[in-house]
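SAMPLE LOG
Freezer: B-3
Tube label: C17
Construct: single chain, 311 aa
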Amino acid sequence: MSECNFQHVSVLLNESIEGLNIKPDGIYVDGTAGGAGHSSEIAKRLTTGRLIALDKDPDAIATATERLSKYPCATVIRSDFAEIPAVLDSLGIDKVDGVLLDLGVSSHQLDEAERGFSYHSEAPLDMRMSQEGLSAYDLVNGASGAELAKILYDYGEEKFAPRIVNAILDARAVKPIETTTELADIVRNAVPAAVRRKEGHPARKTFQAIRIAVNGELDRLSETLDRAFERLAPGGRFAIITFHSLEDRMVKQAFAEYTKGCTCPPEFPVCICGKTPRGKLVSRKPIEPTPEELEVNHRSRSAKLRIIEKL
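STRUCTURE (predicted):
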């Protein structure tokens, strides 16, 4: 794959770069380099500083390496963002001035049919961001009915999970479910007719749930939140772009925990817990795309950006 084929429109680009409050001599980590959109904007603002750009997708790494080659300050490493501490240790870096995570599936991953992320085009059921390990095919054809139902409920918030799972079990009893369109058709036929008539594809939540399970997305995020926050220098900022309520809830709760101070009962005359806030929110509410951005990139519609500064 040539780098020019990797198309990805960076979501909330200006807002996230502004939110990181980049210092020319600072050290920054882009944990989801993708097509290097955010990374390039960080790199061009650095003089003596440093950018560490990570991604677990080999296509993204090839692209980011090429697009960031003109910035001597940038180091591109193939790694999951959950490994940020290990990566920093390997580079001899203790603290950083900013961490950015863009948790969305890249436009490239959706548009390259053979990656198997999209229900719009026929491809092998895959959905692996790292292109290795357990695939969507393995999960859909190998997981028990109870496991599949839990995945659809927990990660897709899909209320028709029992109907969809029963349809999957019936179909795979005849032959393995091999392609994205096969799975999409099974889901479409399993949900009530009223749901099929609504706007949007009825398989959207199922595909989201399976993708999250295949890539361990929520587990990785949960591991990363504390680890990355710990590696921030005082005044350093952590900016995270989420694309669905499950991710956003995790980020919101973690950030609330970092900003929490004394937990003593209100009737105590003095604080004895000794707890002080570790961070402060840069904006009280999540930042969302402008109407102008929504017009040019409809995939940004569910994006939310939250930023916290370490005290």
